[in-house]
Design brief:
44% of the residues lie in helices and 13% in strands. It has helices at residues 9-19, 39-47, 63-72, 82-92, 115-148, 150-153, 187-190, 203-208, 225-229, 233-238, 273-277, 291-301, 351-360, 381-396, 421-428, 435-448, 450-477, 483-495, 497-503, 515-536, and strands spanning 30-34, 52-56, 77-79, 101-104, 170-174, 195-199, 215-218, 241-245, 261-265, 306-310, 332-335, 342-345, 366-370, 376-380, 402-405, 417-418. An eight-stranded parallel beta sheet has the order 9-8-7-6-5-10-15-16, with helices on both faces.
Length: 537
């Protein structure tokens, strides 16, 4: 027989009141329920205004329960697997992090909450906090640059056209860590037998070995023209694919790359999704804040059977952060005498990038990780964070891919098999792959599809709508003295997602901004929107 709370809504509300912390914030704190007995509890939570609610229904037979819950708990998100949960947590992790978590499986305290689900949620919290602070710092730039990139995106398909394009084929993810010098010379013999995915910085070391990457990823919001300038023009003419984040520096979309197919994606988790949603696309890669993390996620997106890391030190070797032949090869890190902090000395990058990195790495705290060959290696807090991301990614996707760490130095990454690249080559890289033709044919099909034409039309409408809304806001601000106009101004301002993302930092909370403050922000954005309008015409 079921307990009353399972059939009586009032009893369920009493249960929730008794179990939730007194200072529970229904708007921001996260509740995670498990199993079919959570129906009334979910309803009771939603009656209290619960906004963040995840419900684990692992069985295919839970469809009826899901339908009931959809009626009683409309904000709830349902998941059947850890893969689905990972995506949900990634999507959630763009707003203010929860201060508290509540896990519920049963009134009976002897029934534990599913441990793998709880572990994943617990581990997502530090990442959520990092993403939130990152978005606070870079949110305005992402929004402004995303808008500025819209004319280029009208001519660019997203990575959705590449989903599973290399199903069953092996991939090598090449990063510019100092250990890359140990096996980079082996890549030339492998470049026709594996999909080679690289960061932009690794292209120069690859070129020095006569290796052409198949894809280079860019997620950085700063101007990286100096990295393109470090590459010979003939190399750029041979690069098959360039995969660009939708909010990167706009100049990157206009590099002279006649033979390179460009694909776009949301590079800042779901913080960029608002741009894609305006033209009916969804091209998201979980990136963890690092281009190397995004690169292995891209290899998974391509459907590759095995994912092999090289040059992914996630630490320092003799004070070096990167292989000498990389554009930033002269950058070094020095451990303080007490072993607590690191002094990072930047070389080879633009002044803009140096200034930005110094904001993040002012006397960064030294951390330690297990070493590839045993013992421990020293690293920074951000590399430490990326290491944890790789560990979780390998754990969540171990049934879909074989993971190898062939860095042959740096940090040990649990969940991956640690083998020299030569050994992985004997296991994985046997058949020749006609990669360029696959990339070119997928790109051409996407560009010729009706969906791409509709995409162009929707982007054009979105840009013109944004510009018109800004003009309306400006007009309303100038006569916002009466209550009716002030109400219209507030409603219009809050409905403009691009405006709130760009101006939310200075107008926080934006709901309380004055008409003069809003007018000032709108006046600042109007020239940008006018320039974008002109470029799409």
């Amino acid at each position: 027989m079921h307990d009353p709370w399972q059939t009586d809504p009032l009893a369920a509300e009493g249960l929730v009141d008794a179990r939730l912390p007194a200072d529970w914030d229904s708007k921001f704190d996260l509740a995670v329920l498990s199993g079919s007995d959570s129906t009334l509890v979910a309803g009771a939570l939603c009656k209290r205004g619960q906004a963040r609610l995840l419900i684990y229904l692992p069985s295919e037979n839970d469809q009826a329960v899901k339908m009931r819950l959809a009626e009683t708990a409309p904000p709830a998100k349902f998941f059947q697997s850890l893969d689905e949960l990972a995506l949900m947590l990634d999507r959630l992790a763009v707003g203010r992090p929860p201060q508290k978590l509540w896990f519920f499986a049963s009134l009976d305290d002897q029934v534990p909450f599913p441990a793998p689900v709880k572990k994943m949620v617990d581990e997502a919290m530090p990442l959520w906090l990092t993403n939130y602070h990152t978005a606070q710092q870079f949110g305005e730039r992402w929004a402004v640059q995303g808008l500025a990139n819209l004319p280029a995106l009208m001519k660019t398909p997203s990575i959705t056209t590449l989903r599973n394009a290399f199903s069953g084929k092996p991939a090598i993810i090449v990063s510019p860590g100092p250990s890359l010098k140990k096996n980079i010379s082996q890549l030339k013999a492998l470049q026709d037998r594996a999909v080679i995915i690289s960061s932009l910085q690794t292209l120069k070391p690859l070129f020095s070995e006569g290796v052409i990457a198949d894809f280079a990823l860019v997620i950085e919001a700063v101007d990286l023209n100096y990295m393109f300038a470090a590459l010979p023009p003939q190399y750029l003419l041979k690069l098959p694919g360039l995969v660009l984040g939708v909010t990167i520096h706009p100049d990157t979309y206009y590099q002279p790359l006649q033979n390179t197919q460009i694909f776009s994606f949301a590079s800042n988790n779901y913080a960029d999704e608002w741009l894609y949603s305006n033209y009916g696309d969804e091209a998201h890669l979980p990136g963890g804040g690092s281009v190397s993390c995004a690169a292995i996620a891209f290899g998974s997106y391509l459907g590759c059977s095995s994912l092999t890391l090289v040059g992914q030190d996630l630490s320092f070797s003799d004070g070096k952060m990167y292989i000498d032949t990389a554009p930033l090869g002269g950058t070094s890190a020095t451990l303080s005498s007490d072993g607590q902090t690191l002094q990072v000395n930047y070389r080879g990058m633009s002044q803009e990038v140096q200034n930005e990195l110094r904001q993040w790495h002012v006397r960064p705290t030294a951390r330690k990780l297990p070493g590839y060959d045993g013992g421990e290696v020293v690293t920074t807090a951000d590399f430490f964070h990326f290491h944890g991301w790789f560990v979780r990614f390998a754990e969540y996707h171990k049934k879909r891919h074989r993971f190898y760490n062939s860095t042959e130095g740096g940090a040990f990454i649990p969940g991956m098999e640690h083998l020299p690249l030569a050994e992985v080559s004997r296991r994985e890289f046997s058949a020749t792959i006609d990669k360029r033709s696959i990339i070119e044919s997928r790109h051409a099909a996407a560009m010729a599809s009706p969906a791409q034409a509709e995409r162009r039309a929707r982007i054009s409408r979105f840009v013109r709508q944004c510009a018109e809304q800004l003009r309306q806001v400006t007009a309303l601000c100038r006569r916002a003295a009466d209550l009716e106009t002030a109400t219209r101004l507030r409603k219009l301002t809050l409905s403009m997602e691009f405006f709130t993302k760009i101006c939310g930092q200075r107008l926080d909370p934006i709901e309380a901004a004055t008409a003069s403050q809003i007018e000032q922000e709108a006046a600042r954005l109007l020239p940008l929107m006018a320039a974008i309008e002109q470029r799409i015409s």
